[in-house]
Amino acid sequence: MLFLTAVLAEVEHTELPIPTWTYGMIALIVFAALGFVVWSFRDVANRHSAKANAYAAAHGGAASHGGH
């Protein structure tokens, strides 16, 4: 642990290219965009419920899981 503290003490602090709060804002925007993408796919399985019910009826009902 002494080596690590010695190295950290000798490291020169450099200036960041943008203010530190900007990194948080960028992360917030990215996560919000990704959250919107995930949210846009909500309820996709139920959009064609008539087609899914017809498939389930033709292929052994909802209890059949393809042999799993």
UniProtKB/TrEMBL annotation:
Keywords: Membrane, Transmembrane, Transmembrane helix. It comes from the Bacteria. The chain crosses the membrane at residues 20-41. This is 4-hydroxybenzoate polyprenyltransferase. It comes from Cryobacterium arcticum. The lineage of its organism: Bacteria, Bacillati, Actinomycetota, Actinomycetes, Micrococcales.
